[in-house]
Amino acid sequence: AQRVTQPEKLLSVFKGAPVELKCNYSYSGSPELFWYVQYSRQRLQLLLRHISRESIKGFTADLNKGETSFHLKKPFAQEEDSAMYYCALRGSASKIIFGSGTRLSIRP
Amino acid sequence: NAGVTQTPKFQVLKTGQSMTLQCAQDMNHEYMSWYRQDPGMGLRLIHYSVGAGITDQGEVPNGYNVSRSTTEDFPLRLLSAAPSQTSVYFCASSSEVGSYNEQFFGPGTRLTVL
């Protein structure tokens, strides 16, 4: 079975502080993992995918197969990072499931 | 390209009524899916399709039907609406060619069942 767990419903940090949004997954095969973001009044959109090992808007995420985690990190938070963040997993039969989401709030 | 479009934007139903939420995409994507978004529950997959004529159940399929007669359209039908189906519904699509493909989302339909 596929499962994505985001343990934090809300994360509030000060501007300039480091950010880490946690994501753990359960899947027996090789997963495709993604982070999606939903800014206020905008559509859900892709932030990054683990295969690319890219940094988007200063965010990075590393897949840790031993801990089955895919945490999202940013060294210095900015106010424009305030949004809803979802971790997603694509596994068997192309099915894509999402976690429950973490609302990130950046305080000035 | 319009991307992924959904209609209507808002809908109020009475318990027991039926309706169809429309979803269309103009990117020739094989994969389409429906999610519902509820506070504290995140996005939950209702049904998905990997191509015309092929559909499968997601995490929360009960009370919903889908069909995929064309590549472009993937309507979601509520057969007998219940208050528990009050939610925001999102349709999404992606290419099946290759892997790690991005899902493109529609703007959502906010449904209230009284």
What does this structure look like?
The complex is a heterodimer of chains A (108) and B (114). With 108 residues, chain A is an all-beta fold. Chain A contains no helices and 11 strands. In chain A, strands 2, 5, 6, 9, 10 and 11 form a 6-stranded mixed sheet that branches. A 3-stranded antiparallel sheet of chain A has the order 3-8-7, with no helix packed on it. A two-stranded antiparallel ribbon of chain A has the order 1-4. Chain B is mainly β. In chain B, 0% of the residues lie in helices and 51% in strands. In chain B, strands 2, 4, 5, 6, 9, 10 and 11 form a 7-stranded mixed sheet that branches. A 4-stranded antiparallel sheet of chain B has the order 1-3-8-7, with no helix packed on it. In chain B, a hairpin with a 3-residue loop joins strand 4 (31-38) and strand 5. The radius of gyration of chain B is 13 Å and the shape is globular. The model of chain B has no long low-confidence stretch (mean pLDDT 94). Chains A and B meet through strand 5, strand 6, strand 9 and strand 10 of A and strand 4, strand 5 and strand 9 of B.
